[in-house]
Amino acid sequence: MRFGIAARLGIVLALSGMLSAGITAFQAQRASETVLVDSARAELLTSTRVLAQRITQVREDISRTLLALARHPAALAALESDDPQAATQLATLLALPMAANRAYFQLRLIGAADHGLERVRIDRDGDALLRVDGDALQEKGHYPYVFDALALAAGEVYMSRVSINRERGSHAALGRPAVQLATPVVDESGRPRGVIVGSIDLNGVFALLAADLPADFLLYLANSAGDYLIHPDPARTFGFDKGRRVRVQDEFPATQAVIDGRSSESMIDSDAGEHAQAPLVAAFIAARVQLRTEEGAFILGLARPRAAVLAELDPLRGIMLQIVIGMSLTGILLAAILARAITHPIEVLGAAVQNFYDNDQAPALPVERQDEIGALARRFAELRTQIGQQLAELEHRRRELEHLARHDALTGLPNRALFDDRMAVALASARRDDGGLALLFVDIDDFKPINDRLGHVVGDRVLEGVAARIRQSIRESDTAARIGGDEFVVLLPGIASAEDARVVADKIRAAIDRPFMIDGGELAVSVSMGLAHYPQDGSDSTTLARHADAAMYRDKAEGKARRHS
Amino acid sequence: MLRRLSLHRLPWLVLALALSGTACATEVLRVLSWPGYADADVVQAFEARTGARVEVTQVDSDETLWQKLSTNDATDYDVFAVNTAELQRYIDRGVAVAIDPAALPNLGAQLPRFRNPATLPGTTRDGKLYAIPYAWAEMGLIYDRRQFDAPPQSIAALWDARYRGKVLVYNSGSHNFSLAAQMLGKASPFRLDAADWAPAVERLVELRRNLLTFYAQPEESAHLFVSRGAALMYANYGTQQLQLLRAAGADVGYAIPREGALAWLDCWVVTRGARNQALALAWIDHLLGTGPAHVLSARHGLDNTRDPAPHQAETDRLVWLEPVEDVERRNLLWERILSGDRGARVLAP
């Protein structure tokens, strides 16, 4: 494929236009992405903090409930007496918060006596609340939520580690992630007699708390060691319960600082490891628990797919694409115009070269331009003028040479060669038109003596004068020629008869008979003439010439006789 | 391109294949191992000595080990490590092959208790040796010296009301029923007869009532022991817990009860699919040498079979773990006991 300069220039210009537009759009997008991701992380961090505050509020709500129950006289009464009435009254009280808040798996009163035997217990069982009683009550003294809570002062709340509930017979809570909050029930002397224990549904609480988070937010919760408790992939939670560790710092290495306590928060752009395919933007914070607990702090995090964050750029991308396309099209258009502006004068110059000899055909050269093209055009115009002048001169010379070849240099009359041509043409024409023509020989009498006596210059002047007078005496269409030293011949085409030709001959003789003024003196010159007429006297030029020649010699002889008589 | 390759480069391919064939001629030993049993330096020493190449595959659970060896007729590995309790099903399945002790010069350097098959139930069958003891640990008693005048002599101390609320026990159905069986004086703690279940459950409920709590991890146990002022602990992780407690500044002692401490013993076994049995035996013999044995105890805190264990006497009784009579039943009953069920409810169907 061949490209002209215009096409190549156009492509280069269009490409550079597209490239610059593309680079601009790319840089703008990069900058926008950075801004978006930064603000997304900040937003995630804020959301995480808000979530942590809500968790604290929920936990405080539960704590207040437990404290209220622990202080209620029915709790102590149920521990100190075997009166079923007291237990029933407390059971009614325990059922109230459970009915109001689905976050409770269980609410229990557990005694310090009898190896931590449960005294009053309400379980959630599906949608129903179930009071567990009698033989089904279990001894829980070996659980930390009992022995550690019993060690607390009145008004303090204990929180257990978050774990999978393995306590058989716990109904809805069995096998579910749960955390126990507990507070002691003390008697008048301040002695702990038992504990009120609330078993909290971890996933239920977080499902409520995270309900109004945007759908693409991913929620993470880990314990102080980093073990996942909540993860978008439930299979990765409570790994320690299955004998393996699945930890947040393994998935998000940057959270190590939060787990070590070196930092209280961590904003992460996770695009390595398992997130290489689908990068996440995330924020993690350490949420300290203001309770008596083995759990130190929780690592709470929210993440969003980076792709979802950047999806906000889609409208901008559309606009940028339009700008790129627009700028590219403009570039192509400009390139086309520019290419045309450059190549058109070149085409004009080309046409001028092509029509070098014909100034009328060539388009006007852009000589008025002030740029390189103008200079080139001006040079070219000069060149054309120069060459034109030289060519004209050559033509002139050629014409002169041609004229000289076919004319007599002295008199300017056609010479024999030209005369023969015209004779042939006239004869052919006469034959075709069935017309006539006349051939008239004119010979200057006694010319040699004039030459000898008066000199060649005078002789030449005589020849010039005779030629001029012959020319004056004939029609435009007739031809007079000098064919020898003092011999002239006249061709009279279109002469119908010899009589008409004789009239012309007489006119010539009369003109020549007038004296010639040469160098201030008069000189009389006479001529002898012979006439031949076609078709009367011959049908070809040779015959006609012989006839005319013969007639002329007769006339010369008669003239000599006249002059000497 | 393909045609060019096949036509013009065929000689090179043949040559390359021939060369790679030569490379394959180097012996490769395929080892299925546990973390700490085939460290890089141990492997390199073996490779340097034999010129063979060792491919180590690590497993971290009995289930994974069984899965890898029960597929492809055990032809994927030459040698593997397994505990004596698990070993039995490998012998049953024919995965393990008998070993000629004469091929293992380093056997002579092992402690007497590991050289006598009679004291190591499970390593032999029908008079043939199937497994070479390598690493082990026992589950002794850790006690607070300030709360004990003399080291506890018996596991009965776990039930002693003087230490009520100050005892820590590992959370395991299998092991704790074995403990109860020892308390009941059973000949084998791994064999409970039908009449033994009720008294065993009764013992374990009593144990539950006497202790502070059950633990799962060594670090957790050490933390509980120190922070709650415990007096006695059944140390499932043995000396590892002892080291943790001493590191935490606890004044603790370690005792092997007269009933015998439950102990696990990992052995090396050659597979039926071993390509080169001599090489597999050379690997086992290499691991019995002083270097690997030292790596095992110094680097990983496990007992080796050459050096006397630091916290016990040669005469202390060890009860090597064996498969229990009904692991599902033990676990079900244990979960009920752990959850706080009382008496008859534990044994309810």
UniProtKB/TrEMBL annotation, chain A:
Leader sequence residues: 1-21
GO molecular function, one term: catalytic activity
Keyword set, alphabetical order: Signal
UniProt cross-references to Pfam families, sorted A to Z: GGDEF, HAMP, HK_sensor_dom_bact
Domain of life (superkingdom): Bacteria
CDD domains documented for this protein: GGDEF (cd01949), HAMP (cd06225), PDC1_HK_sensor (cd18773)
GO annotations of cellular component type: membrane
Gene3D superfamilies, sorted: 3.30.70.270, 6.10.340.10, PAS domain (3.30.450.20)
Annotated ranges, domain GGDEF: 435-565
PROSITE patterns the record matches: GGDEF, HAMP
InterPro entries per record: DGC-Regulatory_Protein, GGDEF_dom, HAMP_dom, Nucleotide_cyclase, Rev_trsase/Diguanyl_cyclase, Sensor-like_sf, VP0354-like_sensor_dom
Positions of the HAMP domain: 340-392
One GO term of the biological process aspect: signal transduction
NCBIfam families: GGDEF
Record's protein name: Diguanylate cyclase
Organism: Thauera aminoaromatica S2
Automatic annotation (TrEMBL), chain B:
Signal peptide per UniProt: 1-25
UniProt main location, coarse: periplasm
Keywords: Periplasm, Signal, Transport
GO molecular function: polyamine binding
Coiled coil: none
GO cellular component, one term: periplasmic space
Subcellular location: Periplasm
InterPro entries, per the entry: SBP (IPR006059), Sperm_putr-bd (IPR001188)
Pfam families registered for this protein in UniProt: SBP_bac_8 (PF13416)
UniProt key word Transport: yes
GO biological process, one term: polyamine transport
The protein's name: Family 1 extracellular solute-binding protein
